[in-house]
């Protein structure tokens, strides 16, 4: 592919033209360093003009590592018997966020394995506790639940929901997720949007069998579903999983996706993920400079950190949340940005259902 042609695609995308899947595939595949640098810089400019220089902090609590699923890449999959399992009581989850509230962080992100021990009432107790004690925005990241559950959590005050689609390739999805389907995952995303959540998805980069075409389709999916948030990280092989010996995803490919997401969905909330920090000490800084605008300091109590191991070498597990906030504040100033104030809600305006194109059907039917 000619350099000039790719540079022109980037230039037009920066001015708002929607990139085709073929064009994005070429941008994932190119070996031309100048093109890639231009892609990163264009995304950084769009980030600056669309969402500004503020980096919003989200306080993450990983409250349970029990999981009923067996995702082939994930360190806390059901069949991994090496994991020491833990569950935090609802009150303990609320308590873990007290220091985040004192530090003026506006959002709590509650993440767990797909763990039905937390029934509707327990999750509602956590949401209400956080709302009553701190008034923080609440983001749930607890996997696939019924429409009725999503509805009840929203009614209890939950603001946002994260559920990554992991890969937009349906066959690869089925291979990596025994007993699960991409179709059902997308149904969950549509329901969440329909219920009025600010909704986030995302995928891993560098999965075995993943192609540049399927990465381009990941970007397209996030754009066409009109999602408000997207988390992107490299696949990192984890011990005790069927993919323990597979190859790790690369930072460069992750950054390309972050940049293309910023160009195709300018208002998207994009975190510089822990996984990018894990594969490269400068990973987060780099992601923040080619499109990302969110950081998620870890507020999981120290005694559980080691056990929430989705992949090895996880960044920041030995740093206290106070240390992480200090480190992140320095990181933010060193790249000439500022810490966001308030809840940092999505700036996207949604239409009635919030969905575009062919994603707009059958929200309530079961799949
Ligand atoms: N490498 C990278 N990311 C992983 N996740 C789970 N396991 C791994 C791994 N081995 C990601 C998935 C999940 C998120 C919480 O963590 O994308 O949605
Ligand atoms: Fe956690 Fe630097 S961001 S220690």
Characterise this structure.
This protein is an alpha/beta fold and 367 residues long. It has one domain: Aldolase class I (TIM Barrel, Alpha-Beta Barrel). 42% of the residues lie in helices and 12% in strands. It has helices at residues 3-14, 21-29, 33-51, 90-96, 98-102, 120-134, 147-155, 170-176, 182-194, 212-224, 251-264, 274-279, 283-288, 302-305, 321-334; strands at 54-64, 107-112, 137-141, 160-162, 198-205, 229-234, 294-295, 338-339. Strands 1, 2, 3, 4, 5, 6, 7 and 8 form an eight-stranded parallel sheet that branches. Helix 7 (147-155) links the parallel strand 3 (137-141) and strand 4 (160-162). Helix 3 (33-51) packs across helix 11 (251-264). The protein is globular. It starts with a helix and ends in a 28-residue tail after the last strand. The structure holds 5'-deoxyadenosine and FE2/S2 (inorganic) cluster.
Structure, briefly:
With 367 residues, the chain is an alpha/beta fold.
């Amino acid at each position: 592919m000619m350099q000039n042609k790719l540079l022109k695609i980037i230039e037009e995308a920066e001015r708002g033209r929607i990139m085709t899947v073929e064009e994005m595939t070429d941008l994932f595949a190119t070996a031309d360093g100048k093109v890639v640098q231009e892609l990163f810089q264009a995304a950084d400019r769009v980030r600056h003009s669309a969402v500004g220089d503020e980096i919003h902090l989200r306080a993450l609590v990983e409250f349970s590592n029990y999981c009923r699923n067996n995702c082939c890449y994930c360190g806390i999959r059901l069949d991994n018997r090496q994991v020491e399992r833990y569950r935090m009581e609802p009150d303990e989850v609320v308590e873990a966020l007290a220091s985040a509230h004192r530090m003026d962080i506006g959002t709590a992100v509650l993440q767990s394995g797909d763990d039905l021990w937390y029934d509707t009432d327990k999750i509602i107790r956590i949401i209400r506790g956080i709302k009553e004690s701190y008034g923080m925005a609440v983001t749930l990241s607890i996997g696939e639940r019924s429409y009725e559950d999503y509805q009840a959590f929203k009614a209890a005050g939950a603001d946002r929901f994260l559920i990554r689609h992991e890969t937009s390739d349906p066959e690869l999805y089925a291979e990596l997720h025994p007993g699960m389907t991409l179709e059902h995952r997308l149904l969950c995303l549509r329901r969440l949007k329909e219920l009025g959540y600010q909704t986030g998805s995302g995928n891993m980069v560098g999965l075995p069998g993943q192609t540049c075409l399927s990465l381009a389709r990941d970007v397209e999916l996030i754009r066409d579903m009109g999602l408000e948030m997207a988390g992107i990280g490299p696949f990192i092989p984890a011990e005790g999983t069927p993919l323990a010996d597979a190859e790790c995803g690369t930072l460069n490919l992750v950054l390309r996706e972050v940049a293309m997401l910023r160009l195709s969905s300018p208002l998207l909330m994009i975190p510089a993920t822990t996984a990018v920090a894990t594969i490269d000490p400068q990973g987060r800084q780099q992601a923040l400079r080619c499109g990302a605008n969110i950081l998620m300091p870890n507020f999981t109590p120290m005694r559980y950190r080691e056990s929430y191991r989705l992949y090895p070498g996880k960044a920041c597990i030995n740093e206290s949340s106070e240390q992480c906030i200090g480190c992140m504040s320095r990181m933010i100033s060193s790249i000439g940005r500022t810490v966001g104030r308030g809840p940092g809600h999505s700036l996207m305006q949604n239409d009635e259902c919030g969905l575009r194109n062919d994603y707009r059907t059958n929200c309530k039917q079961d799949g």
